[in-house]
Write a structure and sequence with these properties.
Largest sheet: 8 strands, mixed
Strand order of the largest sheet: 2-1-4-3-5-6-9-10
Order of helices and strands: HEEEHHEHEHEHHHEEHHEHEHH
């Protein structure tokens, strides 16, 4: 019996294009995103797009927290005790500061999970040809660093975690709306940008809901105020607001992964409550998942340790690098 070759019906071109657009959108939202980054080496920034420099020092990747951006960490990455340079010749280390997804110049994505963001970090390492690296993260960046270490231990040489523990955080119902993360995000989203002309007007418009000048200045670093262009947010505010405090489940990770058995330091602010060494939950989580951890406390500082005490923070990092990351 002769066989008949079945032919697939050809879709109209408009449907085919639509299908391609949907597929590209799905792939970009479900897979890793290509993180924007900048490499510091020898106390200087390399040109954008530069390859990783040659060095016998283990490279380091640095990640900011919620509403942060890579430039926030520029002075830290250029510190001679961190990337080498003047006065620290022979200690040149490649230090890559990163914009997390939905932040800074990195792509926006509807997916905002710790697993996905850890995948972004490993994807960046693959792009840069980095086999293993020291990873430093502050707050949200620290959570991503811990997740990457638990899920990809062979790729993470060691960890420096700034003022965050591997526990789930929930804002207390009585948290002041002036300092609540969700309230701050809601305040930013409420700004009617088309009616504003510059950052100063935005700064003044936020005063009733965010009285702190420091918090307003920090948050408004996310506002792109390019001259002769309409104001726009660099960060993906709707997604950040929708997913705040819901990015991870370290209890699940602890059950599904093995402990990370490499050097880890938790750097805490003495006035901060994000890492409480005597809290049974914090202590158990750190000991169970990161058994080789140590804790360094920088006194008289809060959550933004690297901003409030930059010299002391750099000194703690330098000691860790000298001991474990030659």
């Amino acid at each position: 019996m002769a066989t008949r070759r079945l032919r697939h019906a050809r879709l109209p071109s408009s449907i085919s294009v639509l299908r391609s657009q949907i597929l590209r959108r799905y792939l970009s939202s479900s897979g890793p995103v290509e993180l924007s980054h900048r490499i510091a080496f020898g106390g200087k920034d390399l040109a954008v797009g530069s390859p990783m420099p040659t060095s016998d020092k283990t490279p380091m990747l640095v990640m900011h927290g919620l509403l942060g951006q890579a430039p926030n960490l520029r002075s830290f990455t250029l510190h001679p005790d961190v990337s080498g340079g003047k006065g620290a010749e022979g200690k040149e280390r490649a230090v890559v500061r990163v914009d997390l997804r939905n932040h800074g110049n990195s792509p926006h994505s509807p997916v905002m999970t710790t697993d996905a963001m850890a995948g972004d970090l490993i994807h960046l390492m693959d792009r840069l040809g980095i086999e293993t690296a020291v990873v430093l993260g502050h707050s949200l960046g620290g959570r991503i660093a811990m997740a990457a270490a638990l899920c990809h231990p062979s790729r993470i040489h060691s960890l420096i975690i700034s003022d965050v523990a591997p526990v789930q955080y929930h804002e207390h119902p009585k948290t002041s709306p002036y300092t609540s993360l969700r309230s701050i995000l809601d305040s930013l989203m409420s700004l009617d940008l088309p009616k504003l002309s510059n950052r100063r007007e935005a700064f003044e418009a936020l005063a009733p809901s965010i009285p702190s000048d420091a918090i307003r200045n920090f948050a408004l670093m996310n506002l792109d105020a390019t001259p002769n262009q309409p104001l726009r947010w660099r960060c993906n505010l709707p997604i950040l607001s929708k997913t705040v405090n819901n990015w991870d489940d370290f209890a699940r990770m602890a059950a599904e992964t093995s402990p990370y058995e490499k050097p880890t330091v938790f750097v805490r602010g003495g006035k901060s409550t994000y890492i409480l060494p005597d809290n049974p939950g914090h202590k158990h989580a750190m000991t169970t998942m990161f058994p080789k951890h140590q804790i360094e406390t920088i006194e008289n500082t809060g959550h933004w340790v690297h901003v409030e005490r930059p010299k002391e923070f750099a000194a703690v990092v330098a000691r860790f690098l000298d001991r474990y990351c030659q």
